[in-house]
Design goal:
8 helices, elongated, alpha+beta, Alpha-Beta Plaits, 37% helix, 3 domains, 4-stranded antiparallel β-sheet
């Protein structure tokens, strides 16, 4: 199944909570060195009535499902004791566990945290510092300002992470990058210079089968600063323009094509006269002026 078939939803009821607690047992069963938890201990740890942590921490549990099957989990929490001590707006996440992606042979990393400037850079820096290579990323922002980023990563040998210790290292690296007071640097491999960016043909398409609840717009373009902000601004302007149009859709393909061709024609006409005059100038006269 495609990545878009994964549904992330809050834990609701005892059945969901049990699936949340038991997911690591199913994923890590048979791994060397893994010792399953005691069910009674985990039940008490996740119970607001028995765990004193919940007195000063607000927690929301989430499960990720693919075709109804639980494939990942994560928590988002606000620690009021932490906020009172450090006087900031830091949020935290934890209990991150996800199964390897069966189609791409990679490991899925899900990050749920308050959205902010430079968030994706910090996630990438954390994964890079642990030696992970990102092969795919899906970025979502909720209406209440939370970011839910799903990334597929492979190790340095191009394989999924199977060692639980290495998976925990990934989690710790991302957590450290997100909570660091200074922006973490991207590590550089010794002996390798910076690779030149390759050209990407820009395209925009409506992914009609990606979701049954929302309209998914897929944008392929070369990455650059403020790309996401520019796309968001374009959507906002589209809605404003739509309110000013009569009997024309703001995303009408014929309208967009006509306007684009008109602008191209104007640009060609504007360039034609200066270019024609330039071709008639004697090169020797041009060089003397230089």
């Amino acid at each position: 199944m495609a990545n878009s078939d994964i549904v992330v939803a809050p834990v609701e009821g005892k059945a969901d909570l049990k699936a949340f607690i038991q997911l690591p047992v199913r994923l890590f069963r048979g791994h060397k060195g893994y010792i399953p938890h005691l069910n009674t201990e985990r039940d008490e740890a996740f119970s607001p009535k028995k765990n004193p942590l919940f007195k000063h921490v607000e927690v929301q549990f989430f499960l990720a499902r693919r075709a109804g099957r639980v494939v990942g989990r994560i928590t988002a929490q606000i620690d009021h004791a932490y906020l009172e001590r450090y006087k900031d707006d830091t949020g935290h996440f934890g209990c991150l566990v996800a199964e390897d992606d069966p189609e791409s042979g990679s490991t899925r990393i899900s990050v749920f945290t308050p959205d902010r400037e430079g968030l994706f850079y910090r996630i990438c820096a954390g994964l890079a510092s642990a030696g992970a290579n990102i092969i795919d990323a899906r970025i979502h922002t909720t209406r209440d300002g939370m970011a839910l980023d799903n990334l597929l990563v492979k190790d340095g040998q191009g394989r999924a992470y199977s060692d639980r210790r290495l998976k925990n290292r990934l989690v710790r690296s991302v957590e450290n990058a997100l909570t660091s007071e200074i922006e973490p640097p991207l590590p550089h491999a010794p002996g390798h210079g910076k690779a030149a960016a390759f050209r990407v043909a820009s395209s925009v398409a409506i992914a009609e089968r990606a979701s049954t609840r929302t309209t998914v717009v897929e944008v392929n373009a070369r990455d650059r600063p403020a790309l996401l902000a520019g796309l968001a601004g374009a959507f906002v302007l589209t809605r404003i323009i739509a309110s000013q149009l009569f009997a024309i859709s703001a995303v009408d393909p014929l309208t967009f094509t006509g306007v684009s061709l008109s602008l191209l024609a104007v640009a060609l006409i504007a360039c034609f006269a200066p270019a024609r005059r330039a071709t008639r100038v004697d090169p020797l006269i041009a060089l003397r002026h230089e």
